[in-house]
């Protein structure tokens, strides 16, 4: 479809208001429903799923340490909006077609409130999954200021539920952040970037079959999804009117599969100030930013001296990343447009500070456990790719049982031809390095033979992370301390088509 670009203004998600709030706790109720929303001027309204009648959902704004309770309520229909493959684990015939469970991505929470994939529920909690334990989730927010997001995490159909619209921002604020005098208020803008495809009637398009159809099945999972339109905050290729001053943007890759390599066609610097889990030590001026699915980055863009200009945010990440086809510069190569057309509403006194927060590096010598974990690929009985962690299915016995307070180093050995963004629940980690190795030798002998020098994390990754890019034929090392909670969590690839089939494993934190 040939849709005009930059004809719809960027929506900024509203801030969700709590049902109750006192000095001890804050309580929200959030409804999931199906509704119609205009995603582009030239498209009929699109049927989507969302929270509180809007896609993306409204933004939570909470304080570090604030005790927040949320009742996630499903009022979704019984029939799914998108094609369900019942051969996928967890989506088999006999379970309700529409199920949800919400994960607060990047949060450190008790296991019962983490959105475990089998803790799903249906409309009115009429049916629940085997790990369902409570209707009201508790978030203690024991984290510094950071940009989190909430999204569906149900086993077998996460890719469909997120694509249908079940995602939104969750921002934690603190006093240290306020003291830094960063751009704030209407100059602090969250941006969720996704790719989608549409039918001429405005409805969402998602394939029923991969490029090489599985003739035995009416609907089959696909190895990855590539949309041909970029949607930001629920609008296709929007524009955003700005003043000639500094703005803070919270960038989230909310796509199923697509990576983004973002830059401005004005060639000005983006001042990188935060990673997935919070502020970094010093701002970094960079020309481009790489975002894998689920990664977040915060940047300051200074539009001073750009009065009257139109600046396009572009994307040149190949698909699949990093060795796939070059992007079409007329479609997914463009993200949104900034128009510096608003008069200055007041003097810009915000700052790009030289120092923000200390970042003590975790030392490998403090680790008491080293785990060697593989990313592998199999072919299933239908000839389809089956992506696995440690070559194990979801239901295999749990093999990762870190102890509370224990520091571990994980070696992620990518034996596949794909690049995988790996996400761990509960904790944040630091990227140590990446190193090429002899994959064939490892497959045949189990011997880890490095073929290159260790490469430190990119400047953009030198902060607290919860998602890391594990490149093909490389070992990616990460270090983390497990806690402050015990219980059952998961780690997985955040390419949603891989996560669903079935590149996800549980881990249990023990006392």
UniProtKB/TrEMBL annotation:
Pfam families: Cu-oxidase_2, Cu-oxidase_3
Residues in Plastocyanin-like domain copies: 99-176, 385-509
A GO term, aspect molecular function: copper ion binding
Membrane-spanning residues: none
Family as reported in the entry's similarity comment: Belongs to the multicopper oxidase family.
Name assigned to this protein: Multicopper oxidase
Source organism per UniProt: Neobacillus novalis
């Amino acid at each position: 479809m040939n849709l005009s670009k930059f004809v719809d203004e960027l929506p900024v998600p509203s801030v969700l208001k709590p049902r109750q709030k006192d000095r001890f706790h804050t309580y929200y109720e959030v409804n999931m429903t199906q509704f119609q929303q205009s995603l582009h001027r030239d498209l009929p309204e699109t049927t989507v799923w969302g929270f509180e009648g809007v896609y993306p959902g409204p933004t939570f704004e909470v304080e570090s340490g604030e005790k927040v309770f949320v009742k996630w309520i499903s009022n979704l229909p019984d029939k799914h909006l998108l094609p369900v493959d019942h051969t996928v684990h967890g989506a088999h015939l006999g379970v309700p077609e529409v199920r949800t469970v919400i994960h607060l991505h990047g949060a450190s929470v008790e296991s019962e409130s983490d959105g475990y994939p089998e803790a799903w529920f249906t409309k009115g909690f009429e049916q629940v999954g085997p790990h369902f334990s409570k209707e009201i989730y508790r978030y203690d927010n024991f984290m510094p200021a950071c940009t989190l997001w909430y999204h569906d995490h149900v086993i077998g159909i996460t890719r469909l539920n997120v694509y249908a619209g079940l995602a939104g921002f969750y921002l934690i604020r603190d006093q240290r952040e306020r003291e830094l005098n960063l751009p704030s208020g209407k100059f602090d803008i969250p941006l969720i970037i996704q790719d989608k495809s549409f039918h001429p009637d405005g409805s969402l398009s998602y394939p029923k079959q991969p490029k090489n159809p599985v003739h035995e099945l009416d609907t089959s999972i696909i190895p990855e999804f590539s949309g041909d339109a970029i949607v930001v905050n629920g609008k296709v290729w929007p524009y955003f009117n700005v003043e000639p001053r500094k703005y803070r943007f919270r960038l989230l890759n909310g796509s199923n599969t697509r990576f983004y390599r973002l830059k401005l066609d004005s060639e000005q610097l983006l001042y990188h100030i935060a990673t997935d889990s919070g502020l970094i030590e010093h701002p970094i001026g960079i020309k481009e930013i790489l975002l894998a699915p689920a990664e977040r980055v915060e940047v300051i863009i200074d539009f001073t001296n750009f009065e009257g200009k139109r600046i396009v945010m572009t994307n040149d990440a190949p698909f699949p990343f990093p060795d796939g086809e070059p992007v079409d510069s007329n479609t997914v190569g463009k993200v949104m447009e900034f128009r510096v057309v608003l008069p200055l509403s007041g003097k810009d006194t915000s700052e790009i500070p030289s120092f923000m927060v200390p970042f003590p590096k975790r030392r490998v010598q403090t680790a008491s456990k080293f785990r060697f974990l593989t990313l592998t690929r199999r072919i299933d009985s239908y000839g389809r790719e089956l992506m696995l962690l440690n070559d194990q299915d979801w239901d295999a016995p749990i093999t990762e049982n870190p102890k509370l307070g224990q520091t571990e180093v994980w070696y992620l050995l990518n034996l596949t031809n794909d690049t995988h963004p790996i996400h761990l629940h509960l904790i944040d980690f630091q990227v140590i390095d990446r190193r090429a190795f002899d994959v064939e030798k490892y497959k045949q002998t189990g011997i880890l033979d490095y073929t290159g020098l260790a490469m430190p994390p990119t400047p953009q990754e030198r902060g607290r992370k919860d998602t890391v890019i594990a490149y093909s034929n490389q070992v990616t090392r990460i270090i983390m301390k497990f806690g402050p909670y015990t219980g059952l969590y998961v780690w997985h690839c955040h390419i949603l088509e891989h996560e669903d089939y079935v590149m996800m494993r549980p881990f249990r934190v023990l006392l």
